[in-house]
């Protein structure tokens, strides 16, 4: 009896990350993937953002955005106001939990985070810092 292993051919953590990275490469955008570490106080902890654009904008790519992630990003924003952290969601209109009327996009708007759906907008890439 033979066993087959499922092999992840992508070096990225999710299909959405792979899609976003491929889009950046196709547009010949300069970026770094998981190249920086940001310390923040929770235990202490270290946060490794997904993407840093050449203009310094940090982009976190999220399919699922749970309460722990939301809490972590609020701590990071409070402790590092100099960081321009933005989100790309697989579905920005997804509810933060089943009984909530708040979407991922609503949460970002409420807490002052810029967000996009599916891909990094051209405006972010061209933005000067």
Judged by helices, strands and strand pairing, the structural class is alpha/beta
Helical content band: 25-40%
Could you describe the largest sheet, including whether it forms a barrel? 5 strands, mixed
Cα-based radius of gyration, to the nearest Å: 16 Å
Q: How many separate helices?
A: 4
Distance between the termini: 58 Å
Number of DSSP E strands: 7
Mean pLDDT: 90
Question: Can you give a write-up of this model?
Answer:
The structure is a single chain. Strand 5 (58-62), helix 2 and strand 6 (85-89) form a beta-alpha-beta unit. This protein has helices at residues 15-26, 67-79, 104-111, 122-126; strands at 31-33, 38-40, 45-47, 51-53, 58-62, 85-89, 115-117. Helix content is 29%, strand content 19%. It has four helices and seven strands. The protein is α/β, with parallel strands linked by helices and 129 residues long. Residues 1-9 have low confidence and may be disordered. It has a five-stranded mixed beta sheet with strand order 1-4-5-6-7, sandwiched between helices. Strands 2-3 form a two-stranded antiparallel ribbon. The radius of gyration is 16 Å and the shape is globular.
Kindly list the characteristics that best describe this protein.
five-stranded mixed β-sheet; alpha/beta; two-stranded antiparallel ribbon; 7 strands; disordered N terminus; 129 residues; single chain
Helix and strand arrangement:
Blueprint: H1 15-26, E1 31-33, E2 38-40, E3 45-47, E4 51-53, E5 58-62, H2 67-79, E6 85-89, H3 104-111, E7 115-117, H4 122-126
Parallel strand pairs: 5-6, 6-7
Antiparallel strand pairs: 1-4, 2-3, 4-5
């Amino acid at each position: 009896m033979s066993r087959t292993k499922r092999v992840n051919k992508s070096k990225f953590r999710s299909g959405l990350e792979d899609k976003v990275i491929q889009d950046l490469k196709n547009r010949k955008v300069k970026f770094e993937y998981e190249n920086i570490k940001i310390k923040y106080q929770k235990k202490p902890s270290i946060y490794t953002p997904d993407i840093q654009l050449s203009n310094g904008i940090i982009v976190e790519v999220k399919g699922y955005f749970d309460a722990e992630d939301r809490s972590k990003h609020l701590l990071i924003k409070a402790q590092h106001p100099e960081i321009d952290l933005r989100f790309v969601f697989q579905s920005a209109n997804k509810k933060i939990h089943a009984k909530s009327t708040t979407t991922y996009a609503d949460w970002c708007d409420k807490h002052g985070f810029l967000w996009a759906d599916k891909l990094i907008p051209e405006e972010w890439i061209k933005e000067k810092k």
